[in-house]
Amino acid sequence: MESYNSEQRIAELEELLRAKDIPNLKDSLRRTNPVDIEEFMSDLDNEQSLIVFRLLRKDDAAEVFAELKNEGKHRLLTSITDPEIDSIVNALNFDDVIDTLEEMPATVVKRMLKNSDAETRKKVNEFLQFPEDSAGSLMTTEFVEVKPEMTCKEVLDRIKKVGSTKVTIYTCYVTSKRKSLLGYVSLRLIVTSDSDTKVKDLMYEDVISVEAYEDQEEVAKTFMRYGFTALPVVDSERRLIGIITVDDIMDVMELEATEDFQRMAAITPDEEEYSTTSAFKLAKNRLPWLMFLMISASFTSTILKSSQQVIESIIALNMFIPMLTDSGGNAGSQSSTLVIRGMATGDVELKDWYKVVFKELQIGLMIGLVMAIVAFGKCMLFDKVGSEVSLIVALTIFIIIVIAKVVGALLPMGAKKIGFDPAIMASPLITTIVDSIGLLCYFEVAKIIMGI
């Protein structure tokens, strides 16, 4: 049996489409993973995309549609007929329908809702009331629900009857007559138990759940902590209203990581893909932070101006300023990145701040000492600036590294304490702060040693 290779399969699809070999193209699409079909379609024009999409089987078409980027979905929905939209809406998982409606323009949403039944429209309106970043906006209602008095045979019969329309059948959720969540039971346990065994004798009652209005980032942390493949969502009265599956939470994790990287690079977060975002919008997202950092960097100029007498007395001090500021910024960025990552994964909590500071202080002392010795040797052997200037540089770099490590650890935790995103205290801002502190230390050390 030939192994599946995504690159070769996409190349094969491209060749068949160019040759207009429709029968073989249709057969190849049937054997291709929906993720690879989405990648193949992303490079096609509107007409070609429509041809390919109409060659897909109904179930495959729904899966491919769910994988498409927002631009691709919009392009497709404006090209296909109302019956085709109806077919897609009916075949899609409900959470994918909600995701699509949240991202599409009003005209497209109206067409999609027009081609859905009354029950679907009612459910859609209920789901759209949840905040965009909440657990409720991520959940689906397509899960297997059982009652405690049911036997294993009855549960299996129910799974056979409704399982094809559910996103997962591996975990069945046990509810009361009022839909209150009582527990859960795994399919493995149902299959391996006697057919007349009741669910109430098998179910796990200590079920972990999230509330519908809980923030999606907290939901992601719950998934990571417990390693779930699905998580029940309840309302304020603990009634089961949906579940969140791991594939949806992976999208959230990717989005949150992207936002953190953007903030760490001094860019206003944007959910749009880089390739589909206009140059103007990208510039608008980057400009505010760059303006802020440029203005904040004026403190560095003020420090240099106030230390003009020291600089004029020892011209050689100028040549080491870039090395000192860069070393401090890099050291601070290392600490902040690790602390931000630790807070994101739950490994570092605010109550641990003194442990984090003490650890970074130890690290700073060790790294600072090594770098100071190396800097002293460099100044003496290669720069040949004399022992006094070499000592000034060595002492300053030791102080800067220690301060940078502590500041890099404290700022993200301080930001979280006052309600800001810790990622905004990353590389660019820490570099600016440490630069200013480093220059102050540099010239003060120079004044003391040189007696100026």
TrEMBL record:
A Pfam family the protein falls into: MgtE
Domain of life of the organism encoding this protein: Bacteria
Domain CBS residues, every copy: 203-259
CDD domains: CBS_pair_Mg_transporter
Membrane topology (UniProt): Multi-pass membrane protein
Chief localisation class: membrane
Compartments where found: Cell membrane; Membrane
Keywords: CBS domain, Cell membrane, Magnesium, Membrane, Metal-binding, Transmembrane, Transmembrane helix, Transport
Subunit composition and interactions: Homodimer.
Protein name: Magnesium transporter MgtE
Organism name: Anaerococcus porci
Lineage per the UniProt record: Bacteria, Bacillati, Bacillota, Tissierellia, Tissierellales
Gene: mgtE
